[in-house]
């Protein structure tokens, strides 16, 4: 169980800046994800933590000790690669034993620990198979086992689920997270898939262009995004402009929008009273116009049915276009007239303090 | 370790090769160019001072001009023969299935397992007036007198074709393998007959292989030594043979160098010419 | 119809390729004293003569020894260069490839002559066998390079990184991860190198020192003036030796390939 602290870590590749002075503190046993589009610097950061890339400046501390000048093979890390990187010429057991051999553990101990970890990943009995004889999911688990059997200070995963099909990916998400909780190891997980980051992490680090855009628990990232970029990257979002009407007690601002009145706390002051708000598609309720509900009128322009949910595109009478996501309780078709209802607290203003 | 030192470490891997090639290949080649400009010595390999006389001698003496022409002709004919004879084989081998491919490569390469001296020796047994070919043809009554296959350019060409055929087949095979089989089918579906499909689709796509094979065989034939020496004997000498003679038998190092360099230069010029011609021609098509 | 024509044509060409070799082997069993084929009666007499011929026997020994030494040197230099080429070359890749293939692209005669002059000019001369071995290293290097770099192209650098993350230092990574996985390429390269060195004539001829001769040189010398089938016997033995080396490494290589 290691505490990791990254302090103003920077990486230059010649003239370009891949990672720009980022700082993150990871608590013992915490699972954090580095989330962002390709090129945002998340993989470079992971490589620097692992020791495969040298930092241009900054510190990386494992339990307070700066490891920036320590070679990778001495950092005591466990790494899971995107393509698993299992040694093709060794059996599963030999792959697992390798790290322990490097640590000069006695044969008996190696056999014991290997068997135990194989059991943990539910692959007992596969010890003598070769990687090429295993399915993608099985190779993934062996890669995980190989990283864990050495009981490293920190577990690093580089988009490990990218090469698996959708169903397997969902299963493995749960599997990895459960395993990590059981073992209690500090984990850094790199992904561009926001669903993965959200479902697995204690905290998410959203990165754009080499810098941290936001760092916090998944709910914070989702419900209270720090910027438009973050809001758009993590899930779907509607962007609305609003006008400040009044301020109430507890510093709650009342804002007029095309979708009704929004109530937001701790909002930044703007000179002309204009505000940009974001609203998640699932925060909207739809009723048929005939039901007589109070709300804003709109016309359905498109609908996309995906089984558990339906996405609608609506044109408000005011002209704005919004996206809505609902359960298929009531199904609307393009051309239907509906009433849109939004709870005032569901809006979020960019720049507001969480 | 400092960042500088770390990024320099990989160079240690390539250093020995660079050293070996630099010292024992590049320097000697520079040296031989210098050597070709030295004054010929009498009693010693070379004398002090520099001159262009070695090169002039090559151009002035008709013997050497003829020899150059003859050597070039042998090169051209060998290359052309290898292309004609080798193309169908490459075609056939390229069509073999994946699992027999290793075997196919092995088949083509296996004659190369046997040393050049031995193979040329085999040809001396075959080509002589009393050799196997003539005796067989005479005993079958196909000819009355032995065909002159030995101690002349024809014999040299036959033996060289044998030696270098694999070097033509391999690049051809490689290029033909790279052609997507559905392309020919597409051409046929659009109405092209077999010959047209071959001429307008296969041939242009195989062109890199043809070029590679021809250049390789041509360059190899020009500089072949053992085969022309054993088969041409004292009567017909290619330039490579003359060069070695000049050096080993008569110790004329500067002249031999000039000859060797002229041979290589001429060869290189022919190759460039060939590359020009073939590339331009197919571009126009 | 066309297919069958093509197949028979290919068989003919293949027969053409094998012809001189078969002729030599056949002629070696000639009971008579002349190089005729078909042989006039079969006999092993020329093999007996050969086995008593010190000159040829020592030539074979020399060839084997020179081949072994140059193969070892080339394979070390060539393997290192191939690893660099695939993993660290960057924008120099094309140039390095060209440089490594130079001894193959340049005429062997020219290389031999240049090297001869050079060793004399630096005082080394051909007093020792060093010059010939250097020459052999030069011409075998491209073959090692081609084979090992081909094997390296299918080597995933992530394997080295994984080993690194598990605590393995550079030498351990090479010994336990990289080498086993590129072994077929290395062995293939060594095989090519050995055979090329064993059979090469021109380089050996120009750079030999007094008193030593490789088998091709000895054979060539002999062929200029002698016409008995003894040369055929020697050649056949040489062919058998080469085949033996190939089969031996096929056994070694074959096992390795099926490992993974």
UniProtKB/TrEMBL annotation, chain B:
PROSITE patterns: ABC_TM1. The keyword Transport applies. It is a multi-pass membrane protein. The keyword Magnesium does not apply. Residues 68-274 form the ABC transmembrane type-1 domain. Keywords: Cell membrane, Membrane, Plasmid, Transmembrane, Transmembrane helix, Transport. One of its GO terms (cellular component) is plasma membrane. Pfam families: BPD_transp_1. It is found in: Cell membrane. Its main location: membrane. The chain crosses the membrane at residues 12-30, 72-91, 103-122, 149-170, 251-275. Belongs to the binding-protein-dependent transport system permease family. CysTW subfamily. This is ABC transporter permease. The lineage of its organism: Bacteria, Pseudomonadati, Pseudomonadota, Alphaproteobacteria, Hyphomicrobiales.
